[in-house]
Amino acid sequence: MNNGITEIKLQNLTVKYGDATLLENLCGGFKRGQVNLIVGRAGSGKSTLLRTLAGFHKEFSGTVMAEERSFNPSGNISLVFQNPEALFFNGTVGEEVGYALKMRGLPVEEIEQTSVKWLQQWGLTPERCWNRHPLELSGGEKRRLALAACTVFLPPVVLLDEPLAGLDMRGQRSLAAMLAAMAADHIVIVVTHEPELLLAHSSSLLYLHSGSGQWFTPDAFLREALNNNSFFPLPDWYARALSPYRDTAVLPQIDAISVHRFVSECR
Ligand SMILES: Nc1ncnc2c1ncn2[C@@H]1O[C@H](COP(=O)(O)OP(=O)(O)OP(=O)(O)O)[C@@H](O)[C@H]1O
Ligand SMILES: [Mg+2]
């Protein structure tokens, strides 16, 4: 368990690069419980917003609050960059996953026990991979190791930039389920160009466009995307699977990954 932050609130958050305003007056919140998504075109400011929340980008005004206090990202956040496995720098899986605990000065036995448990949590078998070089793992295993290493110290807030990109369908499916499980006791915020893979696990979606941000429920986002092609390009196969339900009161929670597999198998 983490230290119990349940919501991060943005109050008039304006983000700049020098004189250029990238995002203006963002208001709203990211909650614990289900995955929070951030979407928007390339260059709309998604990664910059994550870096701002993590305290790395300092050119902003407004406030970020947690439990009615100003949020201090230090020690409370893990920011997982795109392709995090490119940053592996330890010689074994065991050392890689335990590194953040070692940096915090924990005793060796505690590091090992926690690392073993955490590897299992992320679907990696310690007996099989503890002494292997991280680069010997499969693509999906590398990504899971990277996420395990970034979250082993249980930060209450986890920010992920494109965590599913570049994985095969199976890898995306298992990782999506793991992120959803992690959201039960962390605030999980995911930037993605493929929201359909996580919408079934999501509570809210922040859509960044032309410097402003609009919040949607998954249902409202899908409806807008189905009705307006220029709003957000859903993949064809997904839009087709949803379109029979367009006029129903609530869209079904279609698991995009199962649909994709079904469609691929039918080809
Ligand atoms: N250090 C910087 N100085 C000035 N402008 C920057 C800097 N870093 C990014 N930008 C600009 O800010 C805008 C937003 O960049 P950002 O990386 O946040 O977009 P993004 O939504 O994550 O895009 P993508 O989907 O391609 O990853 C872009 O126009 C980018 O060129
Ligand atoms: Mg980006």
CATH architecture identity of the largest domain = 3-Layer(aba) Sandwich
Secondary structure class reads: alpha/beta
The proportion of strand residues reads 15-25%
Number of domains: 2
The small-molecule ligands in this entry are:
adenosine-5'-triphosphate, magnesium ion
Q: Please state the average pLDDT score.
A: 91
Counted beta strands = 10
The CATH homologous superfamily of the largest domain is termed P-loop containing nucleotide triphosphate hydrolases
Which key terms come to mind for this protein?
single chain; 267 residues; alpha/beta; Rossmann fold; 2 domains; six-stranded mixed sheet; four-stranded antiparallel sheet; 9 helices; 24% strand; binds adenosine-5'-triphosphate; binds magnesium ion
Topology (SSEs and partners):
Elements: E1 7-17, E2 20-31, E3 35-40, H1 46-53, E4 60-66, E5 69-70, E6 77-80, H2 93-103, H3 108-121, H4 126-129, H5 139-151, E7 157-161, H6 169-182, E8 187-191, E9 202-209, E10 212-216, H7 218-227, H8 236-242, H9 256-266
Parallel strand pairs: 3-8, 3-9, 6-7, 7-8
Antiparallel strand pairs: 1-2, 1-4, 4-5, 9-10
Helix pairs in contact: 2-3, 2-5, 5-6, 6-9
The structure holds adenosine-5'-triphosphate and magnesium ion (MG).
The site of magnesium ion has 3 residues, from helix 1.
